[in-house]
Amino acid sequence: MSPESLVDIFREALAVIVIIVSMIIVPGLIIGLVVAVFQAATSINEQTLSFLPRLLTTLLALMLMGHLLIQMMMDFFMQMVDMIPQVIG
């Protein structure tokens, strides 16, 4: 197996990781920004006001996109299992 093909595998793994993480984190970041603007506009400095909406948004994102995330991981894993003979031999 050539080093270029291993780099391609590593690049694909990083792409899958970035997609999965961004699907979970980005909604929480957007909600956090909205809450931060609201807190700045109203001068409310309550820590739980910023934490709870982000937590709920992250849980909701996991609930709604969990199937897609698991499917992406399974597809990548199956692709890696299919490539075992090429990597070894």
Overview of the structural elements:
- The chain has helices at residues 3-42, 47-82, 84-88.
- By secondary structure, it is mostly helical.
- The longest helix is centred in the N-terminal third of the chain and has 40 residues, at 3-42.
List the helices and strands and how they pair.
Blueprint: H1 3-42, H2 47-82, H3 84-88
Helix pairs in contact: 1-2
- What Rg, in angstroms, do the CA atoms define? 19 Å
Question: What can be said about the biggest beta sheet?
Answer: none
Estimated structural class? mainly alpha
Number of helices: 3
End-to-end span in angstroms? Answer: 7 Å
SS elements, strand count: 0
| Poorly predicted runs of 5 or more residues | none
User: Level of helix content?
Assistant: over 70%
Mean pLDDT: 91
Sequence of secondary-structure elements: HHH
Membrane topology: Multi-pass membrane protein
Transmembrane segments: 12-39, 51-70
GO biological process, one term: bacterial-type flagellum assembly
Protein name: Flagellar biosynthetic protein FliQ
